[in-house]
Design the sequence.
């Protein structure tokens, strides 16, 4: 099939970070196959490519065992309906972008029926849930890996895989322009700025945002001239405004309309929820305090399957605690405030961290859209 012929791929990206990755993936796929048609479940970056989303992406943006159980019937129903539609329409390829709890079972079902499948972003079998490898082997014809050590792990288990680099490493400049970001956001160029990133899921906002805002209040007491910013997805803004009001912080934190990259470029330090955003903060070379809090039972279940001492991606990739992690009960407002303020008074430590993060950036920087398209073309021709 030539590059000018029309191909139909289906994709599912279950949350904001997956939408970012899928949008970059679509850059490469559309460069390879300009007439490509895509549909499934996705967010705004995918929609900008003409992607047809059959359900709102937010329906899948649930994290934690207990939270998933609460929404299980609806999510399982969406997956059944989606599978039935894909088997009727039979796209040439299905690409599951992250969201392994949703995508791997779907991929396995489609693959059994003869539809080729690719999984983009290797599930974290090296961090926890090593038992997932059997499910990956059954689900994916090929896995596109965003970290360099993953293909060897997968291939030892009989799973075809390629390292494609981390797409975000090409989006974030090696030397972010802090001054330009502050000018764009209307921030004082000389002020100390803290970015609060309590997460992109409603469950994260529920469990973390109040702690972050209480910590922010303590930081302001210690440093009254501090400027505080928080990038918030539009669908979560009303809830966040209510939490700010409850914390007595209304008007003290500038809420941004999304714009997480602008916030990370502008800040001196970030207090941030564990997840993909922590890697983005590292690529912006910003010191951070990583925090997480979830349903207690979900946390205990997750701890049993954890294989490494680190939770945050920067620490996992650097193989040591280069930034603090405050999790569950340890994520008290006092501890969060103190750990965040420490970075503002530690320029030498910050400079050393920036050097580590620059080396990590170089390691993750590849022509991801083209490498993804190359790997997918081989799957289609195989």
Sequence:
């Amino acid at each position: 099939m030539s590059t000018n012929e029309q191909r139909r791929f289906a994709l599912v990206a279950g949350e904001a970070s997956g939408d970012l990755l899928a949008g970059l993936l679509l850059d490469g796929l559309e460069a390879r196959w300009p007439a490509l048609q895509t549909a499934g479940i996705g967010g705004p970056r995918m929609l900008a490519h003409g992607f047809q989303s059959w359900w709102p992406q937010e329906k899948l943006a649930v994290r934690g065992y207990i939270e998933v159980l609460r929404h299980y019937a609806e999510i399982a129903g969406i997956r059944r309906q989606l599978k039935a539609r894909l088997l009727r329409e039979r796209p040439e390829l299905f690409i599951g972008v992250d969201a392994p709890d949703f995508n791997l079972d779907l991929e396995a079902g489609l693959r059994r029926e003869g539809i080729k499948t690719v999984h983009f972003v290797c599930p974290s079998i090296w961090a926890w849930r090593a038992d997932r490898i059997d499910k990956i082997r059954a689900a994916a014809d090929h896995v596109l890996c965003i970290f360099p050590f993953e293909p060897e792990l997968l291939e030892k288990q009989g799973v075809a895989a390629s390292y494609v680099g981390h797409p975000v490493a090409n989006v974030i400049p090696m030397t972010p322009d802090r001054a330009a970001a502050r000018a764009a956001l209307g921030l004082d160029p000389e002020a100390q700025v803290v970015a609060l990133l309590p997460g992109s899921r409603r469950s994260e906002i529920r469990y973390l945002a109040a702690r972050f805002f209480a910590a922010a209040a303590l930081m302001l007491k210690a440093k009254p001239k501090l400027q505080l910013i928080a990038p918030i997805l539009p669908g979560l803004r009303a809830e966040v405004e209510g939490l700010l009001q409850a914390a007595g912080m209304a008007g003290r934190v500038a809420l941004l309309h999304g714009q997480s990259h602008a916030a990370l470029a502008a800040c001196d330090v970030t207090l941030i929820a564990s997840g993909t955003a922590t890697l983005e903060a590292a690529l912006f070379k910003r010191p951070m305090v990583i925090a997480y809090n979830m349903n207690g039972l979900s946390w205990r279940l997750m701890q049993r399957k954890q294989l490494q001492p680190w939770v945050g991606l920067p620490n996992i990739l650097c193989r040591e605690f280069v930034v603090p992690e405050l999790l569950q009960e340890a994520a008290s407002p006092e501890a969060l405030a103190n750990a965040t303020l420490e970075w503002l008074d530690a320029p030498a430590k910050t400079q050393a961290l920036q050097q580590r993060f620059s080396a990590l950036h170089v390691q993750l920087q590849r022509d991801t859209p083209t490498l993804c398209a190359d790997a997918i073309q081989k799957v289609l021709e195989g």
